[in-house]
Design brief:
Blueprint lengths: L1 H24 L14 E8 L14 E5 L2 E3 L1 E5 L6 E7 L8 H14 L5 E7 L3 E3 L11 H9 L9 H13 L6 E7 L10 H10 L3 E6 L10 H10 L4 E2 L7 H13 L2 E5 L8 E9 L7 E3 L3 E4 L3
Parallel strand pairs: 5-6, 5-8, 8-9, 9-10
Antiparallel strand pairs: 1-11, 1-13, 2-3, 2-12, 4-11, 6-7, 12-14
Length: 304
């Protein structure tokens, strides 16, 4: 009995000595805002006065500003690299007469793209569903993409915002660094559970580039072209409004050229910056010609 008491006392004394040191080594719960810096990726398109895409510029031609302060460029790429790209197609009743033209335009886009691009489609009316089969999240096969496009329908209402958010979520699973979403719709929405603010917030939290193609009749009062334009500009892309569905094929060809001739820049922001929206501005310098640049307007920093 006495030996057991001594043993207990010894263990208690050892614990009293070691416990403070052990407690000091226990990792503390991380703070909400971490000081760890992450690379901010910016996809850039450069155009000349004739709206032709300009390639072959060196890294020294670019300057990036975050919240008005220049940032050192730590990553630069200007070659034609494979991308992850999704086609988000409006399959509501208002698109019924344009369905065949949109399918042909989508296939033409794929033929003009890098053969190694990984692609997918998202169809939507009041519901949202993938065009590819469940076992195939992405494809580089033109025949598979054609079959995915043919699985679209043209009936029902329009859940545009839900579809874009689904497309952005699918993009995140892509393997390529540059991620593109192409939205073909009239911009109207009468069936989503999401709001446009949710879509814009999701887009600004990732480095996706969202091109929009607004196809609608002039007497269509449900069309919202201003939303399509705002989404494209915020992500560094362009909004197009063809006169008819047949012109969509030319527009998608232009988008394919834009993607293949663009630049990807990256920088590491200083740690400890404020959470929330941070502005991005990119300047391009050329001694012999005037160039314009298109890039995303900013990004959301900090926890969602």
């Amino acid at each position: 009995m006495r030996q057991e008491t001594y043993r207990f006392t010894f263990i208690a004394l050892v614990w009293c000595v070691l416990a403070p040191a052990a407690a000091a080594q226990v990792p503390q719960a991380p703070a909400v805002f971490s000081s760890r810096s992450e690379l901010v990726v910016v996809h850039v398109s450069v155009l000349d006065r004739k709206s032709g895409f300009v390639s072959g510029l060196p890294q020294e031609a670019f300057t990036i500003y975050e919240n008005g302060r220049p940032q050192p460029v730590s990553f630069f790429r200007n070659e034609d690299s494979p991308v992850t790209v999704g086609l988000v197609l409006d399959c509501s009743g208002s698109m019924q007469q344009r369905r065949d033209a949109v399918i042909a335009a989508g296939l033409g886009f794929a033929k003009s793209s890098n053969p190694q691009d990984e692609m997918f489609t998202v169809n939507f009316n009041e519901h949202v569903w993938p065009g590819l089969l469940p076992h195939m999240p992405f494809t580089s096969d033109l025949d598979e993409l054609h079959r995915a496009l043919l699985r679209s329908t043209a009936r029902g209402q329009t859940a545009l915002f839900d579809a874009i958010r689904a497309g952005l979520s699918h993009l995140e699973a892509g393997h390529e660094q540059k991620k593109i979403l192409i939205v073909v719709s009239d911009g109207g929405d009468n069936a989503s559970t999401s709001r446009f603010a949710d879509v814009l917030n999701d887009a600004l939290r990732m480095d996706a580039v969202i091109y929009t193609i607004g196809i609608y009749d002039q007497d269509d009062h449900d069309a919202r072209p201003e939303l399509l334009r705002k989404l494209a500009q915020a992500t560094g892309a362009e909004a197009f409004f063809p006169r008819d569905a047949a012109q969509a094929s030319q527009i998608l060809g232009r988008i394919a050229r834009d993607i293949r001739s663009g630049y990807t820049l990256g920088y590491t922001p200083a740690p400890g910056g404020p959470a929330g929206f941070r502005t991005i501005r990119v300047e391009v310098h050329s001694p012999d010609r005037k160039l314009s640049v298109r890039a995303r307007s900013g990004y959301m920093a900090g926890q969602p």
